[in-house]
Fold:
Amino acid sequence: MFPQWLESFTKMRPMRLSNNTSYLGNSFRQNWGRGGFWFSFARSILFLSLGALLACSSENERLVRKAEREALQQRSQLSKYLYLQVLENHRAKDDIRYRALKGLAEVSISQLFDYPTAVRAFDTLFEEFGQVNRYQNEIWDLRIKAARIWRLNLQRPERSLDVLSPLMKSARFSYEFGMELGRTYLNLGDFDQARHWFVQSWEQAKRSQNCNVLKRIQLDLIQVYSLRDRCDEALQWSHEEFPSNCEPDRFAVSLEQAHCYEIQGEVARAKEIYQTVLSDNPQNTRAHFFLESLRYRMREKQRE
Structure:
């Protein structure tokens, strides 16, 4: 079964280094013919492979930590390079890879303004980890962030909707999600869907008395109706009641009211609103700009 030199090797007396070594040698010799050698050999290879894998994972873990530190120090190009190195060499779908994808997206957005790289990292993260329970809460927020990049920075609202679609199937709801979805539909020209999600967000923000969110949603809703030439409803939303501890953004609402009055042909009322704003704050450049723009349009209309 084995070469002659190998058979003679098995018959050698084991070295007696201690009381247990002869037993080990006998056991080794007895099991040789029954495949014990090959089992031991395979086990050794397995241990070596596991050791190499653990060493590789440990190195990638170290690189991810270094990339995170470099990002905190605003050394964004080095941080990006390190994240890319980890992603190229570490294919296991574990926490190391998740942190590298997330870190690459974050540093690309906040420091490098490299939005294509950011959304590619997000797309890979959603594909590989979207069904992993331990990451679900964080992925919810990351999808909203990725959708905002597609809508605002890359001017691709249809891709924004693709990113948000899985969240629409969830029983969970947040006004951040509703606002982003409403703005996405607004960019797509679907005003009914935009209004639907803005109203849901408004109701939740009102229950939690989140004043800053209420101010933003009020302006979003006014814009939805203004763009549909339904200024009566836009003006109703401009007077929507806030919780007792909240104040609307009166300046921004006034500008939206003036815009609606101009659309309705009530130019004098629009002009009056701008003048009222300027009487309270004569240095307000936006109000000056809108008032002068209105006067220009009035002069052009008179020449026709």
About this structure: The CA atoms of residues 74 and 118 lie 17 Å apart. The radius of gyration is 33 Å. The chain is about 80% helix and 0% strand. The mean pLDDT is 86.
